[in-house]
Design brief:
Length: 589
């Protein structure tokens, strides 16, 4: 029996109740057919209005149970509630309800509840979310750094979703990174693929000329942290104030072969904008981004892959296959699909990045291919796909290639002018699902699109809130720290008496953070203090010897109003003698 369902309770013929101690039950009519194998483990997330008072104190202590009747046996399913609407202190009139379709799948589904107190269900907490920071710089100047939400499912890290930072040439905010199966520690070398859900366009020919809503984090907030589902919100914008994106991410416990994360995307254009330079980047809603890094110098730069095929569900309701270059050699972008190819999504609104017949498969599914835009009368409806590849880097025995599979504005139709004007007040809003199957094909993406487009219509979404503001990072670069190195990792793993450099951060007169330095394979060591509110800070640098003797070697002062870099020039600790006299000229001791 799956962990999603408890031991079945078998009743004699004519016994048609799961448990007679519960006073009320209501049948659930689901938005999908549950009889097919593809329905198993589909997440149900629906709003329930109760006909009678329902006892509940909070999302953990309540009387709600979800049960399935297959015609012979009752099964209690693990479930989760959130967004409770209270009618009095201990009763609710409605809530949102989450559960997964069990392996028995085809049956009748009921919600049981009571107006009096019941024991807490105490289901296994399968999923969790953590606020983390990552820094990886194998070669000085070539780095991956950022704050991210780490999503854990039954002990495995399944996704990291970027709050802010940078992955090589790509900003990290609004980027969902799917991890390889079995990942226990977040590392770029354990990543599988990136999916970006930011809005972008170009106003020049260089990488720096891209205007994108992932350029600065504005706010973040964890909305739900339950046993089957976690949800959080990220708001980000472009540095010039042209664009803003507010996305709500949901991850549901996924015990099957498919991993999925859903995103409610809300893009806003705040200033009239004009596309120029790289005209194929003319209003991107999101993208799949795949890196392949190879190195003969260090294995730290060996990660990722480029898959050979892209399949797109086209607007003629047929699937089209595109062959991709697995080892691009041009330093300039090569457009496999440009705006002139007029590659528009059809009604099932999916694209599949895969190995062909059977193998690793990544998919993006949209809730619809139309009615995504508002507040712009001249804007053309629809979603257009564009694909570019290039060799990003080739130095010192290290090569990095990448491919970007973008979906965005329907900016071009045959025999028409390319629309390069993006009007102020344009709003783009849709739901998307990012899926990964280790052994599948585009046929699996096609089947999943039918379920997702039906299920997403019943899911509730939080309204925008201000979010948390502790979002800034202070990078401290110590100079002149002496020839003696710093070995915190080696000391912790061996218990040897090795010297260690570390920093203390003081806020409002109190110790706020402690950080050890990180050092790239080639380059200088730095200290990172993350998740900081705005304010005035003091940084003190120490060197510790023999696990007990520490020397004060540097100090710096900084006011934080955004991400900041502070250089501190260190020296040896010295003794200072201070003499103090009172108003009568007497020495004070």
């Amino acid at each position: 029996m799956s962990s999603l369902i408890g031991s079945p309770q078998v009743y004699s013929e004519g016994k048609n109740e799961w448990n007679e101690d519960w006073s009320y039950k209501e049948r659930l009519f689901l938005p999908i057919q549950t009889g097919s194998p593809e329905a198993v483990y589909q997440p149900i997330d629906i709003r329930i209005n109760f006909s009678h008072p329902c006892w509940a104190k909070n999302p953990l202590e309540h009387s709600i149970r979800v049960c399935c009747w297959d015609g012979r046996e009752w099964y209690e399913l693990e479930s989760q509630i959130y967004d409770l609407q209270f009618s009095d202190e201990n009763h609710i009139s409605s809530c949102s309800l989450v559960f997964l379709i069990p392996p028995i799948s085809n049956g009748e589904y009921y919600v049981y509840y009571d107006d009096s107190e019941k024991p807490a269900p105490n289901y296994v907490d399968h999923v969790s979310i953590r606020d983390c920071h990552y820094y990886f710089e194998p070669i000085s100047g070539l780095s991956v750094e950022g704050d991210y939400y780490e999503i854990i499912d039954d002990g495995e890290i399944v996704y990291g979703v970027g709050e802010k930072g940078q992955v090589l040439n790509r900003r990290l905010s609004q980027v969902a990174i799917v991890m390889k199966p079995g990942t226990k520690k977040f590392d770029i070398r354990n990543s599988d693929l990136l999916a970006s859900f930011s809005f972008a366009f170009h106003r020049g020919t260089e990488e720096k000329d891209e205007v994108s809503s992932d350029q600065q984090l504005l706010s973040k907030e964890v909305l739900v942290d339950g046993n089957l589902m976690v949800s959080f919100m990220l708001t980000s914008g472009s540095t010039g104030g042209e664009l803003k994106t507010t996305n709500i991410y949901k991850y549901y416990h996924s015990p099957g072969r498919m991993r999925r994360i859903t995103v409610h995307v809300h893009h806003e254009v705040l200033k009239d904008s004009h596309v120029k330079g790289i005209e194929n980047v003319d209003g991107r809603f999101g993208a799949l981004i795949s890196y392949h890094s190879k190195s003969s110098v260090t294995d730290k730069m060996c990660f990722g892959e480029i898959l050979p095929f892209l399949h797109v569900y086209m607007d003629d309701e047929r699937v089209r296959e595109y062959k991709l270059e697995e080892n691009p050699e041009s330093r300039d972008r090569t457009w496999i699909i440009s705006y002139e190819d007029d590659c528009d999504l059809g009604s099932r609104a999916w694209l599949s990045y895969d190995e062909g017949g059977s193998g690793k498969t990544h998919g993006i599914i949209l809730s619809s291919n139309h009615n995504l835009i508002s507040n712009a009368t001249q804007e053309r409806d629809g979603v257009e796909v564009k694909v570019a590849e290039r060799e990003y880097l080739n130095i010192v025995g290290t090569e990095v290639d990448y491919i970007s599979i973008a979906f965005g504005r329907n900016s071009y139709e045959p025999f028409s002018v390319h629309d390069v004007d993006i009007p102020r007040r344009l709003t783009i809003e849709f739901d998307a699902e990012f899926i990964t199957i280790q052994n599948g094909s585009y046929h699996d993406v096609d089947k999943e699109s039918i379920f997702f487009q039906s299920l997403v219509k019943s899911r509730s979404c939080y309204e925008e809130t201000k979010g948390e503001q502790n979002i800034y990072t202070l990078t401290v670069i110590p100079h002149l720290t002496g020839r003696i190195g710093s070995f915190p990792v080696l000391r912790n793993s061996t218990n040897l008496s090795l010297p260690v450099l570390y920093g203390e951060l003081y806020y409002n007169g109190s110790l706020f953070r402690v950080a050890s330095p990180v050092k790239p394979f080639i380059g200088f060591q730095v200290l990172k203090f993350t998740g900081l509110p705005p304010g005035r800070y003091v940084v003190k640098i120490y060197r510790e010897f023999n696990n007990k003797t520490k020397k004060f070697i540097g100090v710096g002062f900084i006011t934080i109003t955004g991400d900041t870099v502070l250089h501190i020039y260190c020296t040896w600790q010295q003794l200072v003698e201070v003499s103090v006299e009172d108003q009568h000229g007497n020495n004070l001791k």
